[in-house]
Design a protein that fits this description.
The complex is a heterodimer of chains A (252) and B (261). With 252 residues, chain A is an alpha+beta fold. Chain A is built from 7 helices and 10 strands. Chain A has helices spanning 6-32, 45-59, 86-93, 115-120, 147-154, 178-181, 240-243; strands spanning 100-105, 111-114, 124-131, 137-146, 162-167, 173-177, 187-192, 195-196, 206-208, 221-227. The radius of gyration of chain A is 22 Å and the shape is elongated. In chain B, 64% of the residues lie in helices and 2% in strands. The longest helix of chain B has 40 residues, at 212-251. Classes of the chains: A alpha+beta (252), B mainly alpha (261).
């Protein structure tokens, strides 16, 4: 009527169709190349997907910043812990000699490892910052065995996409994609600042993932499961944290 | 698209004068369609970012300078507000509920939309010479008299003239340029610098700001500056006539032009 000519209608119709099919195509491509996080549903799914996809395209192999020994924080802050369970206290009184990390799922040789087993593998360390989503951060030296080393020992199936890790703390588990699982700075961490990893910081065993915020660095790890999908774990959104409303991908 | 607002100019009641108003209808709108759409998307995102930013801040209302900082280190300063975390010493006897999950999700989602919208605005502003035509001050603008008039005028509570209503004075131009090309880039940069993964790919983005905690402190102060801008911006809109100004940003029409018809 006013300026709405037939040509305009046709052109905008074509543009809308092209836009819509472009979006569908982009979504398919993103799914194919592993750029869609498990918590992509809901009103925040767009933001989560944009963040995860762009980080995967930009930062798949980048290394977290490492610091000189002189910048290690004199008093690393241990965040609040839930009361330790009876099971945990029993293992603690035995010096964690009976602590076991079991590995199952899509691996050739499922197995169970003691802390001593893990310590017998090549030990690595990095001086990196632990940053909490709340805003605070400190620098420490983290000592452990790269998760990739242990995954190679048990032999991961080629179709594996995620590693799920479970804590001894009730309802505490999380997962990472293979890019993070095989990243050289991702540790099964048993030491800190030249000593044993203190219980307050997750000892005897914690996942240390310096490119993601604190809550992904779960304490008291007892089990790893390698999987090609996160659908069968909990509500299928990848972690206990994302079931509670916190993003699965926490590199930001 | 750009003529959408002015094309509707001849209201039903003035159909008889529609012929005489045709030249007016051909006039460019006060704000182009793209400027109007990006303005309101940015507004929505800004409020989402502000609300969620405050929620996240409440979980640790302490600020530090340098790379690190926790409740065990001396802060640069601490806001006198309660916190949503038990271990933060605030002096208040209660702990607020944790809102960080959805706040972080919405903060980043709104940031994505705001940044993409901002990119669209800046690229089209360069292509259409919007910055040059509408925001870059001319040389004659840089005299004390012109500057002083632009400061004092709004407080005389006069309705702006037709010329003023269809363009910006030097102070407005400089403020908008500062917000668009200094404050927004800084708030985006300092925000990205707080992403551990982003910082792993671009470590200079943190080091140039003086460390992770410095980036967080800068992010806070630039956000404060943006909130200050918002207050002044809305105050000026109110002084110049809230409905005509806001209407111009919605429909593209200005009240003064209507009087011409």
């Amino acid at each position: 009527m006013i300026d709405l000519s037939r040509r305009k209608l046709i052109v905008s119709g074509l543009a809308a169709t092209a836009g819509a099919s472009g979006l569908v195509g982009a979504a398919r491509l993103a799914q194919k190349y592993g750029l869609v996080p498990p918590d992509h549903g809901g009103i925040y799914g767009l933001g989560e997907t944009l963040s995860y996809a762009s980080q995967r395209l930009l930062t798949r192999h980048s290394l977290a910043r490492e610091f000189p020994r002189s910048s290690i924080s004199p008093r690393p802050f241990p965040n609040e812990l839930d009361p330790l369970t009876e099971d945990f206290k029993r293992l603690q009184s035995g010096g964690f000699a009976d602590w076991r990390l079991s590995i199952d799922g899509m691996v050739h040789q499922p197995g169970s490892f003691s802390i001593a087993d893990l310590k017998s593998y090549p030990s690595r360390s990095h001086i990196t910052e632990l940053a909490c989503e709340e805003g605070w951060s400190y620098i420490a030296e983290w000592i452990g065995v790269p998760l990739s080393h242990v995954l190679h020992l048990v032999g991961v199936h080629p179709q594996a996409k995620y590693v799920v890790y479970v804590s001894m703390e009730p309802n505490t588990w999380d997962s990472i994609d293979m890019a993070d699982a095989l990243h050289p700075q991702t540790f099964l961490c048993y030491g800190m600042n030249g000593s044993e990893l203190p219980v307050a910081h997750g000892g005897p065993l914690r996942v240390r993932l310096p490119r993601q915020v604190g809550y992904k660095n779960i304490k008291f790890i007892t089990r790893l499961t390698v999987a090609d999908s996160l659908k069968g774990f909990g509500k299928g959104v990848g972690s206990a944290a994302s079931e509670a409303g916190y993003a699965w991908y926490a590199g930001i | 698209m750009a003529t959408l607002g002015s094309a509707q100019l001849p209201a039903e009641g003035s159909l008889s004068s529609a012929a005489s108003s045709l030249p007016a209808a051909k006039l460019a709108p006060r704000h182009s369609g793209l400027v109007r759409v990006t303005h309101w998307i940015t507004t929505l995102c800004f409020f989402a970012l502000l609300l969620t930013g405050i929620e996240i801040l409440i979980s640790h209302p302490r600020f530090y300078w340098g790379e690190t900082g926790t409740v065990l280190t001396k802060p640069l300063f601490q806001l006198p507000i309660p916190s949503s975390r038990k271990l933060v010493p605030t002096g208040y006897g209660y702990v607020l509920p944790d809102q960080n999950g959805w706040s972080r999700a919405l903060h980043f989602e709104a940031a994505w939309i705001a940044v993409l919208t901002g990119l669209l605005y800046v690229i089209s502003g360069l292509l259409t010479r919007h910055f040059q035509k509408d925001l870059l001050p001319s040389k004659t603008d840089f005299s004390w008299r012109v500057l002083w008039t632009s400061i004092a005028k709004p407080f005389r509570f006069e309705q702006p003239s037709a010329a003023e209503a269809s363009s910006y004075n030097v102070l407005q131009r400089l403020t908008y340029l500062f917000v668009i090309f200094v404050l927004f880039p800084l708030v985006i940069w300092s925000g990205l610098a707080m992403s551990l993964a982003f910082a792993s790919a671009f470590p200079w983005s943190v080091t140039l700001l003086g460390g992770r905690q410095s980036a967080r402190t800068i992010h806070f102060f630039v956000s404060l500056a943006l909130v200050l801008f918002l207050f002044v911006h809305v105050l000026m809109v109110c002084l110049a006539g809230f409905w005509s100004r806001t209407g111009a940003m919605i429909t593209g029409r200005t009240g003064t032009r209507k009087e011409h018809i």
